[in-house]
Amino acid sequence: MVPTQVVNLFPVDSSFTLNSVDGATVHPAFGEGTIFTDPITMVDGCTITSELDYRRISKFRVRPNPNTGHFTVEFDDPLVVDTFYSVYDAMGRLLYQRPLPTGATTEEIDLSRFGKGTYTMKVTDKDKVRVERVVVQ
User: Fold this and answer.
1) Topology of the domain covering 60-136
2) pTM of the entire structure?
3) Exposed, middle or buried: residue 57 (CB in 10 Å: 0-12, 13-18, 19+)?
């Protein structure tokens, strides 16, 4: 059995719901027994569960930026772990999320259907996140 960590991301009384925008499906998860590890440390009202190690995800660049909605993401090194990218609008709404293949050094992205504006692109693996702003003119 693989250990699983359950983390409450939002308070129970949150006034919003997360929904898939690209056809994700729900799969049940089952667990046996509960093991509690060291308590989580509270620092200045923030919950710290781990520190990000930005070296694991290859640095990336968006070219060109600004652009017309069509651009290339270039990674300094080939991706070595399961990685995906997410695109958010200026209000922080998730527009879509896609996997990146292991070994990838570039990815072509088309935001033209979303119109002009500033978007946030996050590249994430199981432990780390890198963020880049993308301007569509």
Assistant:
1) Immunoglobulin-like (2.60.40)
2) 0.58
3) buried
